[in-house]
């Protein structure tokens, strides 16, 4: 089982560089997904997601992360 801490940060009309963290557990099957709702507000949003090692006193990044601009209705 793969256990990660997912960190997301978004900048929008409602928040500037607001961080959210949640746990993600993946089993042995391929194609599993984790769904987590994040309220960004409407309009232009910059959204970034990064995975970290869980149960570690220091946040060690497990991925470089991905960042996107999107329009939210």
Automatic annotation (TrEMBL):
Descriptive protein name: Uncharacterized protein
